[in-house]
Design goal:
This protein has 3 helices and 11 strands; from the N terminus they run E-E-E-E-E-E-E-H-E-E-E-H-E-H. By secondary structure, the protein is an alpha+beta fold.
Length: 175
């Protein structure tokens, strides 16, 4: 038998909820997220495009796949359109095609938010990226072959690592 959902607190972007004894957070206004796996290929090999930005809940910068909100500005925004927009805003890369890879939940015991993962194809550099409205996003183009070593270096420098990086590191982490 399902327990009724109770809103404990609602802000502009998130809502704290309770169901029985379980407390969790959701995005306000049914906003979803889009996450982009952007792998650039050229004569030097395959590179993944990553970003870092300061994340207030962590109190430090975090290495992440590019991502953004779907429906934040328009309730009927298409997830693929939002992913393409966010990729270009954050990284300065435009995708020729966005391939949806499915819906995922990053922390289902605490957050009800899901994200749609997209694979960006046919990348073209259009600008520097960096985000909008003072987001202070730094763009990194990392050779896939050296990604594990780069992640280790970033960790040593004090960066946080987004769990979605396991998409790229997972197989190499199991000996």
């Amino acid at each position: 038998m399902a327990t009724a959902e109770e809103v404990m607190w609602a802000g502009r972007f998130i809502t704290a909820k309770k169901r029985g004894r379980w407390e969790y957070v959701s995005r306000a206004r049914n906003i979803r997220a889009a996450v982009i796996l952007a792998i650039d290929e050229d004569i030097d090999g395959r590179h993944v495009v990553l970003v870092d930005q300061f994340r207030m809940p962590l109190g430090r910068r975090c290495i992440e796949l590019p991502a953004g909100l779907v429906g934040d500005e328009s309730a009927d925004e298409d997830a693929a359109d939002a992913a393409a927009r966010e990729l270009e805003e954050e990284t300065g890369y435009r995708a020729g095609r966005m391939e949806p890879l499915g819906e995922f939940y990053s922390s289902p015991g605490m957050v009800s938010e899901s994200f749609t993962l997209f694979r960006a194809h046919d990348l073209h550099k259009t600008g520097d990226g960096g985000g909008v409205d003072g987001e202070d996003i730094h763009v990194h183009r990392v050779p896939l072959a050296g990604l594990a070593a780069q992640v280790d270096a970033w960790r040593a420098e004090g960066y946080a690592m987004d769990v979605k990086l396991l998409l790229l590191l997972g197989a190499g982490m199991v000996a």
